[in-house]
Amino acid sequence: MIKPSSGLLTAENIIPAALLLLGLSGVLTIASSQSGAEQPLYLVMRQLTFLVFGMSLFFILSGIRFRTMTRISPLLFGLFWGLLLLLPFFGTKINGMRGWFKLGSFSFQPSEAGRPFFLLALVVILCAVQPGMKRFLLSGLLTFFWLLPIAVQPDFGMILVYAVTFFILLYLSGTQWKYLTMLGTGAVCSALFVLWRYPYVAKRFTGFLFPEQDPLGSGWHIRQFQFAVARGGWTGSKMGGAVWSNAYLPYSYNDSAGAALLETLGLLGAVIPLILFCLLLLALYTLAQKEDLRDSAKLFIAGTAVFFAVQMLIHMGINLALLPPSGLVLPFISYGGSSLAGFCMMAGMALSASKDKQSTDF
Predict the structure, then answer these.
(1) What is residue 211's DSSP assignment?
(2) Residues near 62 by beta carbon (within 8 Å), at least 6 away in sequence
(3) d(CA 44, CA 41)
(4) Which residues pair with 108 in a beta bridge?
(5) 323 close to 315: Cβ distance less than 8 angstroms
(6) How far apart are CA 131 and CA 128, in angstroms?
(7) Inter-residue contact 116 to 331 (CB < 8 Å)
(8) pLDDT at 196
(9) Tens of pLDDT, residues 290-310
(10) How far is CA 289 from CA 4, 30, 53, 351, in A?
(11) CA distance linking residue 129 with residue 202, whole number of Å
(12) I need a surface site. Which of 16, 104, 272, 306 has the fewest CB within 10 A?
């Protein structure tokens, strides 16, 4: 069992080590997926820069008092929500989704970078208001207004991650089942509306269920995931040998990073990043169990673990052809500065929260 605050193998030490090693695993995955590109080191060097930047944010935020961040949570939430609202007017469309701001050669995705501040604002409401209809409505409205501009982009994969995390946090914070049932019913109705309103989403489901019926259309992504994973086998194709990731796997450095990882390392080699993920989640769980922490600190740490686990499971479910295709990154592994910064900031804030004891007055 990981100890929370004594010795070398503590939760506080394991978290930054796991983040760094997962980030380096991502750099190697990107290098493998780009080994056949005209500039094989271009994305690799950029990801290394993102990793240094993300780890810097992690250490900076871990040193800021969590109470200070909770006090300014409305400002932080409002800042990134404002950026989300500006995307339809000034954002750049990539892969049919207007979710980025273009800054020279860099792109910035507010829905990725802003997730720690959404979580912070949500935790503040859940801990400040007594359980009941009022808290359910306030937290629901906060989540609805945050997700509305993301739906306009549209980014349904990101909405799924936020929605599942919101549901789990409501459960962890003691929300009554009647409210959870109401939320689940609303989610099902919303999903049915999306399937009706956006035919391409429905095609992804039919392509997932029957990929052989349209292998060059709606079933294309599923087949490529299957081929890449099958080619990796148990031991992988090693660095430079990931042919499918370089030639056929769509966005192998980003949305398909899990399949690229499996093709490169195989099922046995992929156990190493999996262990690192598990150690990270176990360390966060250990911190959240500290009895002398304030409720808001415990819930934020738990929410961080939930965000990591939900996105990792959905991404790998998609890349293992167990879920319909959707554009989601694999935390710390996929290419992208916004996602890496967002995850690192969240982990840094969780580490700061682990010091927010009930007896501390600041």
Answers:
(1) G
(2) 348, 349, 351, 352
(3) 5
(4) 101
(5) no
(6) 9
(7) no
(8) 83
(9) 888 999 999 999 999 999 999
(10) 9, 35, 30, 13
(11) 39
(12) 104
Q: Roughly what angle, to the nearest 10 degrees, separates helices 115-128 and 73-90?
A: 140
Place of tokens 């690799």: 44
| One-letter identity of residue 324 | P
The pLDDT of residue 227: 87
Provide the β-strand partners of residue 3. Answer: 10
Mean pLDDT computed over every residue of the chain: 90
Side chain identity at residue 335, one-letter code:
Y
- Write out the two tokens for 254: 């980003």
User: By the 8 A CB rule, do 269 and 236 touch?
Assistant: yes
Helices (H), the chain: 11-33, 42-62, 66-71, 73-90, 110-113, 115-128, 133-152, 156-172, 177-197, 199-209, 220-232, 243-247, 257-269, 271-288, 295-319, 337-353
Q: Is 159 exposed, middle or buried (0-12, 13-18, 19+ CB in 10 A)?
A: buried
Q: pTM of the entire structure?
A: 0.93
Would you say the C-alpha torsion 95, 97, 99, 105 has a positive or negative sign?
A: positive
Cis peptide before 154 (omega within 30 of 0): yes
Please tell me the distance from the alpha carbon of residue 238 to that of residue 264, in angstroms, as a whole number: 5
What DSSP line would sit under 86-152, residue for residue? HHHHH-EEETTEEEEEEETTEEE-HHHHTHHHHHHHHHHHHHHS-TTHHHHHHHHHHHHHHHHHHHH
Is residue 155 packed enough to be buried (19+ CB in 10 Å), middle (13-18) or exposed (0-12)? Answer: buried
Q: Return the pLDDT at 362.
A: 44
Evaluate whether 36 touches 264 at the Cβ level (below 8 Å). Answer: no
Tell me the pLDDT tens digit for each residue of 21-60.
999 999 999 998 888 778 889 999 999 999 999 999 999 9
| Residue 187 Rama label (left phi>0; alpha psi -120 to 50; beta) | alpha
Packing angle between helix 156-172 and helix 295-319, nearest 10 degrees? 140
